[in-house]
Amino acid sequence: MNNLRGPAERLEMWGWVRWAAARIAVLVLLLAIGMAALLMVTEGPRWNPSGPVRARLSVASALSAAPAEGFARADAPHAFAFPRDHGPHPDFRTEWWYWTGNLVSASGRHFGFQLTFFRTALAPHMAPRESAWATNQVYMAHFALTDTRSERFRAWARTSRAALDLAGATAEPFRVWVGDWEAGSDGSAPLPIRLRAGEEDVSVDLWLDSAKPPVLEGDQGLSRKGPEPGNASYYYSLTRMLARGTIRVRGERLNVEGLAWMDREWSTSALGADLAGWDWFALHLDDGRDLMFYQLRGKDGRPAPWSAGVLVDARGGTRPLAASDVRLEPRGTWRSQRTGVGYPAGWQLTDLRGGLTLTIEPRLADQELDVGARYWEGAVQAHGLEGTRTVLGSGYVELVGYDDRLPAAKR
User: Cα separations (Å) of 68 from 94, 178, 235, 268, 289?
Assistant: First the structure.
């Protein structure tokens, strides 16, 4: 897709396009704008190669976008049906399939992984064109691996248009792919899901099956991100997926198993102009419960009232978490030597209604993705108390919208 321009110019163009890895629609709108312009001038190759792309645009400078006319909007609860809703929703401007997880080898070696696929529609309808490259859909993927013992974090990104089988998504059988990075079921049943991705000397080949039914986030799956009508997404999660398979890293092939999390959202709307970013937490607790909470942050650094989450019990029952139910306190600051951006170095999360308090710590400090998109997404571990009972956990945290003006964190 990039043959028309030289390497430096391509990096400049794609730096902000890939930044759509952050998971709320305003960021993916930027991808749509850039990809629309690119598709008008070139029919180029299969996908953007993974490489040392650097972010050109911060989240805080881009949290505004014009309304997208002609697309469907998330404005009322949705009648979810599976496996249909595992597949694509092309009437909406953007969606993503998001997997993260913590894995352990037979010898106890820990790995964290992230594999994410994004779909963005460049226009509500496909204009007639004779070219086999013609499409109004663009796909992007991010793949990252945390090798805790080696204290090494690596990440890659790919982009492609949904033409000539280069990228796409289907519901039955379920499959989403960008090149040979893919997630899909083996036959008509939507589960288990096989994840496969590899780059350089790193690859994962994992089977994931869900131990709990889908969790509909927000109001029956309608997750509101602001007060305006349609300023929302359809959002569900498979919060506890049993994972097994193999990891290849630096010449070693290891059998692994562990727990993973799947997030699915689709929407058209953007974040409000007063928001700077968010902190997203997905935790597996050792008593069988799962906890998700995202805190939207205003430009003044304060939590936004549309922050929300859910606590899932061991049997799959849910308790919604409102912004007023959770106190999230950053602990310390870690600053990236690569980008100069500062992020919280840890957190204390308190469920004010349930009495659960968790201290959450990254497995590695440096789990910052700088693949055109710049954000922190990494494996974490948790420990705390609920009354007098000790609670342990593991999971993933995503941090979006941080820059050099990071407020001083509590210590």
Answer: 11, 25, 19, 7, 38
pLDDT for 36? 39
Question: Residue 343 carries which side chain, given as an amino acid letter?
Answer: Y
HEC letters along 63-102: CCCCCCCCCCCCCCCCCCCCCHHHCCCCCCCEEEEEEEEE
What does the block give as tokens for 69?
Answer: 């006319």
pLDDT along the chain (411 residues), means of 10: 37 33 38 39 35 40 53 89 92 94 97 96 78 82 97 95 88 95 89 97 98 94 78 91 97 97 88 81 98 92 91 97 96 92 96 96 97 92 97 97 56 39
Fold of the 7-400 domain: AttH-like fold (2.40.370)
CB 309 within 8 A of CB 395: no
**pLDDT at residue 272 in the model:** 65
Which of 163, 161, 199, 165 has the alpha carbon at shortest distance from 181? 199
DSSP 339-399: T--EEES-EEEEETTTTEEEEEEESSS--EEEESEEEEEEEEEEEEEETTEEEEEEEEEEE
pLDDT for the residue numbered 312: 98
Contact 299/273 with Cβ under 8 angstroms?
Answer: no
The DSSP line for 174-238 is TEEEETTEEEEESSSS--SEEEEEEETTEEEEEEEEESSPPEE-TBTTEEE-SSSTT-EEEEEEE
